[in-house]
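User: Sequence in, structure out. Go.
Assistant: Echoing your sequence, followed by the C-alpha cells.
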Amino acid sequence: MESDFPKASDWSGSSDGRFEANFAAEKKEVDDWWRPKTLQHQEKKLSVTRVLLDSADGIAGFYTLASGQVNFSDLPLELAKHLPKRELPVAVLAWLGVKLGLSR
C-alpha cells in the first residue's frame, strides 16, 4: 500500500540546483537561511538537515538538527539540586521549513 506521506531523504544537495529552485518556505527568514547555509553547516558538521520529498521528488519541507548542552548550574538551586552537576548533551531543532502552500 502506497502512503501519501512524503518520503524522507538525506540532504546532500543536488548538483543541478533542482531542490533549491523548487523550494520556497512560508517564512522569508527560513529561505534566507536555507539557501546559503544548509550545506555549509552540514559539511562543517555543525548540523544535519533532512528533507521530506513530495510525490514529484521536490522538497515538501525540511528540518535541521544541531547539538547543544544544558548547564543546570544556571538554574535556581531549588530546581537544580536533584539534577546532574555536569552539562547534559541535547539535540536542538534548529530550523524547520515547510513549502509555501503546504502548511495548515
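User: And one key feature?
Assistant: The chain has three helices and four strands.
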